[in-house]
Amino acid sequence: xxxSLRFSANFLLCLCIAGLSNTLPECLAEETNAPATKQExxxxxxxxxxxxxxxxxxxxxxxxxxxxxQTNTLxxxxxxxxxxxxxxxxxxxxxNDLSRKLAKEHHVPVYDTIxxxxxxxxxxxxxxxxxxxxxxxxxxxxxxxxxxxxxLRLFKxxxxxxxxxxxxxxxxxxxxxxxxxxxxxxxxxxIRELNIPYMAGSSLPVLWRIPEANTKRGEQIKEVVATxxxxxxxxxxxxVEMVHCLIDRRAGxxxxxxxxxxxxxxxxxxAMEQGVFxxxxxxxxLGRLTKRPPPTIDDVKAQTETPVLFIxxxxxxxxxxxxxxxxxxxxxxxAWRNAETxxxxxxxxxxxxxxxxxxxxxxxxxxxxxxxTGKPTWNVERTLLVSGTLxxxxxxxxxxxxxxxTPYLDVTYTPEWEWQQPPPAPVGRPIMNQ
Length: 434
Hints:
Mean pLDDT: 91
Strand content: 15-25%
Number of helices: 13
CATH superfamily of the largest domain: NAD(P)-binding Rossmann-like Domain
CATH class of the largest domain: Alpha Beta
Radius of gyration: 22 Å
Number of strands: 13
Helix content: 25-40%
Strand order of the largest sheet: 6-12-11-7-10-9-8-13
Structural class: alpha/beta
Oligomer: single chain
Distance between the termini: 46 Å
C-alpha cells in the first residue's frame, strides 16, 4: 500500500509544466468533478481543504485559514497566498463561530465530515493539500496539564481517506503533532507508511528576531538559556521549539534528548545558585526584552510568583534551560554560549500581538511552499522531538521535579531550512476588529 499511494497524477503533471513555464497551469482546476466554485475558477493554485477544531476570531484557524480568503493582512487588502481554499470542516461550532460567515462570503463549501471535505462529494481525493489546525476549542485536559486536542482522531480520518482513494496529498499540521508521545508516534507511523508529505510546528521559528541573530551551521554550542511565559502546554511548546530551531544547526546536527526535568518555585533559583544554568545567559535574555526596561534577576525573583524551569539534556552533552517567568516576563528571549570561544549571543523572538498577527503569514508561507512542491519546507523531526520533549517535561512536573530519562527521544536529523528575517510587520489593528 505504501508505494501505491501517490499524489494525483494530474497535479504532479501540472507541477512539471509549472516548473517549465514558471506559472501554475489551469489544468490544476480540473482535478475534481465536483461543481466549480468561485474559488476554483480563479487562477489555478493548489486546492486546499481546511480541517479545524474551532473557527472563531483570533483562533489559529482564523489567523491561518482566513488568510486564504482575506489575504495575508486579514482585511482583503494584502497579498493572497497562492492557494485556493475549496472546502472546510470544523469539529466544533461555538456561539462566536466565524467559519460559516466567511465560508458563505467567499463561496467555500462547509462539509459535515472530513471525508466529504477531502472528496468534495465524489469518490476521489479532490484537494491538493490539507491544513490541519487542531488548536483551540473545548476539550478535556490531560493528567499532565495539556489540552487534549483530537489530533490523532482527525489525522486518522484523513489517513482513512488516503487509504480509501489510493492517493495522498501534503498535510500541514499546526503546532504539536500530539500532546503525548504515544499518539505522536501513531501519527508518524501513518505518515511513514503512506509516504505523506507532512510538516508541522508553530510560527516561532519564522518570527522576527531582535536583534537579527542565528546560530551558525556547525557551531559548537555549550549551553542555551531562554525565557517564556503563560501556559506550559501551549506556550511551553513555543519555547522549546524556539530553542530547537537554533540548536539543531549545531555541529553534528540534532542528536536527540537524553533526559528532562521540570522544577518549580524556589527550586528554580536554587538551581541557578548551584550552577544548573548559566546566570549570565539569563541576564542576557532579560536584557533583550522589548516591552519593558530590562529587569534584574532580583526584580524577576520578586515579581514572579511561581517560576518554572525546563531542563533539557541532549545526547551530545548540550543543555538547554527554559524559564517561564509569569508576572515579570511576557516575551520569548534566548541566549547561547559558543563552546569554542565562550562568547554568547542573545535575541528576542518577536510576535505581532495585534491583527493581522503577521507572523502567521510566514508560517503559512512554509506550508504554501510544500503544497506547491510536494516537499516539506522544514523537518518534521523537529516538531516530533519538541512534542515528545514537552510531554516528558510535563510528566516531570507532575512527578514533583523527577528527572525523566528519555531514551525514546533519539530523534536525529540535520535541518535544511534556513531562517530569514521577515519584512517589517504592517501596523497592528485591535484584535477584536477585523
